[in-house]
Amino acid sequence: MFRAAGKARGSTAIQHRYEGEFFLDPEQGWRREDGPDQAGELRSAIVFRLVRADGRAAAVPPEEGPQPRAETPTAETTVKVVAAEGHHVDEFGVSARQAGTAYRRERALEKLLVEELARQGVAAGRLEITIRGQSKPLLTDTWDEKHRELYEAKGTVARAKVREAIGQLLDYRRHIIPPPAMCAVLLPSDPGEDLTELIHSCGFDLVYLEGTKKLVRKPAPKQ
Question: What backbone phi and psi angles, to 5 degrees, belong to 153?
Fold first, then answer.
């Protein structure tokens, strides 16, 4: 196995460091795990579990540059609040295709929401959900700890994306104890009557952008 180790001085070429000989874990050589691609879209990836042939621990990578995440499954599922900073960006380093545009729109929506919550005296964050047996945690969108409300943003009102937001909220909610007081789908515009009913049928609020700065909330009907 070789690991990327930065660029050579005065060159754009990527240097690589030889880590040693590895083989697939005979008990669990690989598994499927969801993760975001370069455009922020969820994809099903194959994760390989490698074991060093000589039994030694793999070398620790240098601090600079992106770091691989070690596979250290926890004994139980844990949930912790993490900062929202660094999540909101105005530019995204991919070609200007629809997926990248939608991703930027999601981040802009979340930024507006965080600013609105700040005006209400709420310091918003995100939840990092580490699930037993998974190498990568789930990272939610905006979390209002004061009111225990969880938001999932989408950059389009397409039915598939609204369904995806609902599914993500259902997935996150089952790991949060006690469960959120409210979950909400955050959209760039009014999705229309039918999709609003779909969101409300799950007991979730709808929050959408009206104009360029105003966020409108349509609460789920009381059961």
Answer: -95, 145
